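Supplementary Text 2. Reproducibility record for the structural model of the 370-residue chain.

All settings were left at their defaults, and a single model was retained for analysis rather than an ensemble. We include the record here because the model underlies the residue-level annotations in Supplementary Table 4.
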Amino acid sequence: MSEVLFIAGEASGDLHAAGVAEELGRLRPELKLAGIGGARMKAAGVELIAGYDEMAVMGFMEVIRHLPRHFQMLDEVRGRLASGRVNLLVLVDYPGFNMKAARAAAAAGVPVLYYVTPQVWAWGAGRLPELAKTVTRAAVILPFEEQLLRGYGVNAVFVGHPLLDRAGDLPSKEAARASLGLSPARPVLALFPGSREQEIDRHLDDFVETAQVLEGLIPGIQIIVSVAPTVKLDEARCHYQRVESESFTVLRAADAALCKSGTTTLEAAIADCPLVVAYRTGFISYLLARAMVKIPHIGLVNVVAGREVAREFVQDALRPSDVSAALVPLLDEGNAERQRVLAGLAEVRSRLGTPGAAARVAAMASELVP
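Retained model, structure tokens:
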């Protein structure tokens, strides 16, 4: 039986890989699907050989502490690829691990499909020659990536952003608020402090303090916090209403959002929710990132736009007084700054392609499996 091996190293990759696995299962039900991932991949028919929670760390120092398990899992993947039973390796994001897996697959003669490729536009082009050597096909999700990667010999195709597949049936603001038990008449601020424990540790207190400042400025404001199923919030640190695994509903209910940098900023664009971007990491990680990052913005919504659509507050600039001041105009329906941000978000949405990314990637995978 032909086997397709998936590797997703975190929650977002698990979601994207699951979409591909589900579509591939429809196209090629005779294929065996196995991999490293999470509950969504398992529900989509993937036999898990390990969980992504054993891999999902961030920051340079954090990664170093997890290197022993990282290399153990890599050895397991190499052994599986060398066994001859894997006919295709599908990699989803997570370049620190997946680039090594791609090398192992190339050495074993196994074709590689890389979905959500490394962000070489942020970290420089050093990985592009290796991508060209080890990756058979690349399915990219940002519009400028296809031309960039093809310029270095990578067989890349823009498939559209997978978030669009989840946004096909967004609720109205009224319906979203009703489902969350929120008043339709009072403003709503949504907090997205992160989906990993390290992000929560570094963002939550400042995000909560920002909300408290706004409570003093805007009487009656409602605060909701979007949380990932992989993290737990300390009640003593955050007493606001929490909503698990319903980010689009939260964004549709909100008048504005405070989001840590990452995919959530694109979710806000799709949900048409004005936002402010904030991010803080460890001191050493930040210094190294400053030396390596090649782009002026960190929020994906700004990267896609090519300019600052959403205000960014990074590292020491993440001060609740300043962040709350940036959020106040976004919570005012008639404010010119809110209208500027909304216009920018509409432009970003238009650049993300059309729904159906998972089906397109599954079709590419099917072509690569005999």
